[in-house]
Predict the structure of Diguanylate cyclase domain-containing protein.
Amino acid sequence: MSPDRLPDPTEQSALMNVGEVVREWWVSPVDFQWLREFLASRSLTDPVRLLIALIAALLAVVPALGLLTHDAPDHIAGRALLVVAMVTAAAWSVRWLRGPWPTAFGSALFVIWADIAITVCCLLHGNALSGLAGTTTFVLIGAYVTFFHGPRPLCAQLAWSLLTVVALAIPVATGPDGDPATAIGKAFVTIAAVVVLPPILQISYTLIRSDAVDSLVDPLTGLLNRRGLQTQSIQLARGQRVAGDTVVLISIDLDRFKTINDTLGHSVGDEVLLRSARRIRSVVRSDAVLARLGGEEFVVLDVLPLTHADELAERIRVAISAKADRAPVTASVGFAIAKRDLFAGSAADAVDALEQLLDRADTAMYEAKRAGRDRVSRDIADIRDSSDDDALES
């Protein structure tokens, strides 16, 4: 750059944007559970599980082929290690197919095992050049870490891959038939695929995931929006079943909220919305789904014994109506219930069931408003099971 040339503001802005993106990626939290729930909400759990099982099966093929080639280890210890790698890879494949989805810790163990197994198989290959070529297998594990783990585990995995590539490139370059040009060329291509590509993919994926999460959340209160409610409600309704449990949807509307905005200003109105969101959260279960559907309307969705629905709705009403230093407010509350079986079909069917339940809860909420506000009204579904009918009558 010429000393007389001033820095281009556009270039500086681009560099700052890149730096901000990298910083956001580096500090992004690892949310293994969120990804599991996202896959389940899109009915992708089984296809992804099958894909990972195939990756593990491919890792079993590599040592198997290594045992059959003329470059197989000529000592018992080396052959035994290849057999162990083959058997454990097959075991992981079956684990992904048959077992429950692993925890974040179990997933990390899978990555650690795979990295060690690939390194051992490549180092045991009698031909260093073939072993170097085999390090491209790290791409499979790098892709897995890219989507299921955060930046720090990915960087650790990439560092291990890089060390393995270098360890295999050295004998290719310095051996009896050493070929430095070939070693450098092979290592360069492998590093580009195994070490350079995964961070780029993960940074892009992190930005996309961040946007996806933001699209599900109300920016003011941090509660879910309508789309987020639809996504999370499917997971809640399809969770662990307990005898007698039903899906309960509670619709909450703040009374005369427009008057607060008109007389005290929108900043006070926002304060009331935030306060109400906190108070609702304080009286529901941690697993309950909370959403703000716009304006002054909130929704709580939970799976509870039928007899607890009235009590929960009343707790919410009382919490919102509690004394406040500024702009006290009351709420009209309505709720409806349904059998969990209505949510057992496809994702589209479950969303339809949710919308019908929401309509009925809204109808009950408006009945509470017509009856004088600051009260609870209910619209309970037709539950055919006789024990549930008895519970309704009680």
Q: What stands out?
A: Residues 94 and 337 are 40 Å apart (CA to CA). Residues 9-214 form one domain.
